[in-house]
Amino acid sequence: MDRYRVTLTIGARTIMRGWWSDEATAGRKYTRWLGERGGREGARITLTDEADGGRVLKAWPGEDR
After folding, report:
1. 53 is in which domain, residue-wise?
2. What's the structural domain count of the chain?
3. Whole-prediction pTM
4. How far is Cα 30 from Cα 57, in angstroms, rounded to an integer?
5. Can you tell me the mean pLDDT for 43-58?
6. Residue-wise over 46-59: b if at least 16 C-beta within 10 A, else e?
């Protein structure tokens, strides 16, 4: 099972999801998806550690948006 999950949601709908075993690879995917899809209205992108109880490592936009 791959440990790190990157998810793109728009509103309540999951648009894309991917899993990687390596955190650095998942982090690069997170950054890539942010650049490619982060400008869409209502987009939210998260990087989650599934082995750590689903802890969110990175999220865009942040809580202040």
Report:
1. 4-60
2. 1
3. 0.88
4. 10
5. 95
6. bbbeeeeeeeebee
